[in-house]
Amino acid sequence: MSPQITPIADTAQDLELAERILTPDGTRIANHQLDAFITDVDAASLRALHRDMIILRRIDAEGVALQRQGQLGLWAPCQGQEATQIGTARALAPQDYVFPSYRETGVIYARGAKPGDYVRMWRGEEGAGHDPAALRVAPLQIIIGAQTLHAVGYALGIRHEGADEVAVTYFGDGATSQGDVNEAMIFASSYQAPVVFVCQNNHWAISEPVSVQSQYPIAGRAPGFGIPSLRVDGNDVLACMAAMRWALAHARSGKGPAYIEAVTYRMGPHTTADDPTRYRKEDELDAWRRRDPIIRLEAHLRAIGELSDEQVAETQAAADVVAREMRAECLGMVTRPPLAVFDGVYAEPHTALERQRGEYAAYLASFEGEV
User: Fold this and answer.
1) Active site residues
2) How far apart are CA 45 and CA 51, in angstroms?
3) Cα separation, 206 vs 209, whole angstroms
4) What is the pLDDT of residues 196-205, one digit of tens each?
5) How far, in Å, CA of 210 to CA of 18, rounded?
6) Phi/psi of residue 363, each to 5°?
7) Are 46 and 243 contacting, i.e. CB atoms less than 8 angstroms apart?
8) pLDDT, tens only, 327-351
9) First vs last Cα of the chain: how many Å apart?
10) Is 206 left (phi over 0), alpha (psi -120 to 50) or beta?
């Protein structure tokens, strides 16, 4: 399962080195490494994946719109990365625990997030937009790469308890240059922790292209840590699902960590505070539009006679309903009193926290009477 180690010359070659099951035009091809992991995926399953990706894209578009309208402080778009997020997340078992970065909207969607969960954190109402215990997804992590250490620590607990779980962590290509990610891989390998590393190589770490960040495929680093890896076409939802099933089976069987590099593309800005036109060429964007993950799966389903215009329209309508609910939840949120920021920090009262609460209360009181 180790990747072909060849220098990256350009975007086209970068993608061709990745394993795939569906070509960009939707043609199903044989893959001796991946096919065995998706033998149960029938037409109904494919339509469900297609539906998931359409709904995710609509959620993402609504998030961008809400931020532009001043309702959210920030939004991290995931347009173009739907196949990677949905394909891998739908392979997870209910008991598995996810440690995401800030862009994994599709992962929390697949784990059962409610409309308000997508916006609560970005609106600044809570430190976590969703209930981590209910979704078995840790709060979205803003610090680049920190979640990989959290995942390995949790995985060590799984091993200690002998639990039937796997920890999964998501991060971008830029995070692979962080010490945290490399330290996490060392620890995971040394202690054979049941953890899966998922690198979403979307080609841009803000304004830094992956061709500068890594001269060789990122998945090639993992074997150097003693971690088996697989490099897949991240715009192929079937390849992403198969790769995650392989990685989960490896980790769950006691063989230690596994690594997936999903080669995909960030179609939008890094966040809504970013302007990608300052560093990215339009012809590159156009090339990746032709590899759109949703169009790819739709083309395949239509080619095998398993998707109609009526079904697509119904899915689009369902996506609009989710977006309307998300907007309503966002606009209806009532900001908590300032002192509520101290609530729930500790399970029991804590003297240091109470002192901070008092100091903050005095600070707020100093503004009373001001116009």
Assistant:
1) 266, 270, 279
2) 10
3) 8
4) 999 999 999 9
5) 15
6) -65, -45
7) no
8) 999 999 998 899 998 988 898 888 9
9) 66
10) left
